[in-house]
Amino acid sequence: MSQGKEATSNQPFEIPPNWGKDAFSNFFETARLNLIATSKLMPQEYNRLDRIDHLYLQVIDYAPHNSPEVLPAFFLLRAHSSYRTACGLAASGQVADSHAIMRQCIETSLYGFHVFAKPEAAHIWMNRNDDVDAHSKAKNEFKYGNVKATLSETNARLGTQTDRLYNLLIEEGGHPNFLSIFPHMQMKETQEDVEFKHYYLNPGGFPQKSALMHVSIAGIISLSIFREVWKTRFDLMNLTQQIEKERPNPNEKYWSNP
């Protein structure tokens, strides 16, 4: 099992002369520069995300190719993709948006364990688009409460940790709740009016540092869920200990206990 190579256009190209000078391209260029700045100015947070990414790659390299466990491996790849996307968003300052993708990473991991623990669910998932009834059946089967309960039946402690994190992510940006909007706003009162600014990119402060912590926890929780699929493999590869080593200390700054 392996990830595909990241690809850009096969055709050589030059950066457009006006790139970064209009509002649209400037947003993406600023986000890119923010990500690079985060790697230099917040090395502890950035390097932790990198190490967690390396753990994903080790699991992917040794995931089975032709066994009943191959379907969970597909979910592992998607969870890893979501993890990387969330890392990129958080590191670039797209803080609230990063939490929505962290939530996707956790849900994908739960789906992967659910189809492993309940093989009949795999058929329901694969037949989802057959007809209206199959679609409804799949939606019911893969409700969050249902897939989380499957995990909790096997590992109650991990189920509790996952649920706490999941609900935290919903508050911070998984849903458009208060904490996904107002921490990224600035209000300025004048004699004539009140001006509101909403920062799509919000790097350098507490919200970003908190998001970088949250995405590291999401990666750890995701990998811990997949450990329930391949326990022996994880233990033989010393991945279990490495995952625990990367778990943030509750006394660390910007920690939010999920």
Please provide a brief summary of the model.
The chain has 258 residues and is mainly alpha-helical. The chain is built from eleven helices and two strands.
Tell me what you see in this structure.
- This protein has eleven helices and two strands; from the N terminus they run H-H-H-H-H-H-H-H-E-E-H-H-H.
- With 258 residues, the chain is mostly helical.
- It has one domain (24-246).
- Strands 1-2 form a two-stranded antiparallel sheet.
- A hairpin with a 4-residue loop joins strand 1 (185-189) and strand 2.
- Helix 3 runs antiparallel to helix 4 (95-117), helix 4 (95-117) packs antiparallel against helix 8 and helix 8 runs antiparallel to helix 9.
- The radius of gyration is 20 Å and the shape is globular.
Secondary-structure blueprint:
Elements: H1 23-41, H2 43-62, H3 70-92, H4 95-117, H5 119-126, H6 132-141, H7 144-154, H8 156-174, E1 185-189, E2 194-198, H9 206-227, H10 231-236, H11 239-246
Antiparallel strand pairs: 1-2
Helix pairs in contact: 1-2, 1-3, 2-3, 2-9, 2-11, 3-4, 3-9, 4-5, 4-7, 4-8, 4-9, 7-8, 8-9, 9-11
